[in-house]
Amino acid sequence: EDGVPNLLEYALGGDPHQPHTAARAQPGWIEIGDETYWTVRIDRNPDADDIIFLIETSVDLNDWLYGSAHVVVLEDEPEYIRVRGTAPLSSDTLRFIRYGVVPPTE
Fold first, then answer.
1. Between β-strands 80-85 and 71-77, what pairing exists: parallel, antiparallel or unpaired?
2. Which residues neighbour 25 within 8 Å (Cβ) at sequence distance 6 or greater?
3. 4 pLDDT higher than 70
4. Paired strand residues for 38
5. CB burial string 29-41: b at 16+ within 10 A, e below
6. How many C-alpha atoms does 97 have within 13 Å on its Cβ side?
7. How far apart are alpha carbons 88 and 23 in whole angstroms?
8. Which residues are CB-contacts of 4 (< 8 A; sequence separation ≥ 6)?
9. Considering only Cβ atoms within 10 Å of each terminal Cβ, which end of the chain, N or C, has fewer?
10. Nearest to 99 by CA among 81, 86, 74
C-alpha cells in the first residue's frame, strides 16, 4: 500500500501491491516566441484506454478549472500526456495544477 488509489495506480501503470517510486508527473517549461510556459508530462498506462485523465488548474487552490481554456495539450500519446499552461510565466497569475482519473461513463 503506497496511498495511491487503485484506479490511479492502474491509470499510471503501477502495481497496487507494490510501492510506486517512479515519477508520476514531470514538470518543465517550454519557450514559445518570447514567452515561457510551464509544462507537465504525466506518464500513463498505455493499456488503460478505458480511463479518462482530468487535468485542472487553479490560481488559489480552492477553485479548480478544467478544460482547454486552461491547459494546452502538447502531446497525447498512449504512454503519456504532456500539457502546458495558457498563461506565460511572466504573467502575474500564479497557477497550480492537479490531475486525476475517472472511469468512462457508460
1. antiparallel
2. 40, 41, 42, 43, 99
3. yes
4. 29
5. eeeeeeeebbbbb
6. 24
7. 25
8. 12, 14, 16, 20
9. C
10. 81
Q: What is the DSSP letter of 27?
A: E
Q: How far apart are CA 87 and CA 89, in angstroms?
A: 7
Look up the pTM and report it: 0.80
Question: What pLDDT sits at residue 23?
Answer: 59
Q: Which of 72, 78, 41, 77 is nearest to 57 (CA)?
A: 72
| Residue 13 near residue 43, CB atoms below 8 Å | yes
Percent of the chain clearing pLDDT 70 (strictly above): 92
Give the H/E segment covering residue 65: strand 65-66
Residue 14 above 90 pLDDT?
Answer: no
